[in-house]
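Researcher: We're teaching a course module on how sequence relates to structure. For the next exercise, students receive a sequence and then see the predicted structure as C-alpha cells, so they can try to spot secondary structure elements on their own. Here is the exercise chain.
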Amino acid sequence: MFISDSIESYLEAADTGTTYTRRTYRTAMNLFQEYLKQREIPPDASVLEELDVDRLLVFATWLLDEIGIGKRTLQTYLAALAAWTSYLQVRGWLPFSAQELARFQDGLKRIRRNQRPPELLPYPPRQEELELLVSAARETVLRRPGDKREQLAKLRDIAIVEALRCTGLRVGELVSILRKQLEDQDRAVWVTGKRNKVRRVYFDEQAWGTIHHYLQARQSFDGATGRPLSELPVFARHDKKSGSKVLPLSTQSVQNTIRRLAEEAGLGAKGITPHALRHYFATRIYQTTHDLAVTQTALGHESPNTTRIYAKLEDNAVRDAHKEAFGSN
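Model: And here is the predicted structure for the students to work with:
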C-alpha cells in the first residue's frame, strides 16, 4: 500500500472529535507527506515498507527546525502521527516489528517530555552484524530438506541479503529486476528508482555469484513457464500459491525475510531492515571515497541534501576518534 493511500484511509476513518481537531490532524499528515517528499520518499509512489522508526521520529525535528512550529502544536501533530501508526497496526499494515514499535513509542514519549528530537543520522549495521545476517541466510534449516521450493527460497534469500549488502538498492528496485537486466561483464544492472531516475548499480563478486547460483538452481522452473527467460524476474516467489508461475517477490516479502533472518541471527533488537542495509552501503561508499557526489549517484538520490547525512555520520566518527585520542571534549 502506498503511504499516501494509507494516510487518506486513516483520515477518512479517524474519529478525532471536533471539526477543528480533524482539520489539524489533516494538516499534520499533509506536513508529514511534505517531509517525506523532501527525504525523497514521495508518499504517492512509496510503500509503507520504506518507512522506518528513525524517519518517523525525525519528523519532529523537521517540524521544529524547518517549519518552526511551537511545542504545543508539535504535541498535536505527533498525536496525529501516533494515531496513524495505531490505525496501521490494528489493520496489520504497520511494517514494524514489536521491538521497532516499542522504540517508536518510547521515542514519542521522550519528545513529549520536551527532550530534543533526534537528528536523522543513520546507524548502519556493523560489519560483524552483516556477517551474522549472511550466515543466518546460509545456515537456514529447511523444514522439508527435499522440497525444491524451500531449497530455492533459501538460495534466493542468500542472494537477496548479499545483493542488498553491496548495492544500496531500494527494495522496490530489487524486486523489479528482470533477468535481461543482468550484465555479467561488469556485474551490474540498470535500475529505475524514485521519480524515474535511472542509475547503474554494481555488485561484488560474492553477491553476483549467489544470484547466478540461485538462477541456475531455478532453471527447471523458469523453463516450464513458456516465457522468454529474459522477461522473468531475478528474485521470484517460491510459495505453493505461485504454482508453476515465476512471479516477482513483493516488497513486503523482502522486508519479512530480512526481519526473520535478523531474528535468527540474534539481531532482532537492532532494527535491521533493508533500508538499514542501504545505510550500510552508503556509509561504506562515503567512508571510502569521501565524495558526496559519488555517494549521491550510487544511492540514486535526487538531492545532495539527502546524502549529506553520511558526511554528518563521518563527522561523528571523527569526534569519537578525537575523544578517544585526547579525552573528553
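Model: If you want an answer key for the exercise: The first strand starts at residue 188 and ends at 192. The radius of gyration is 21 Å.
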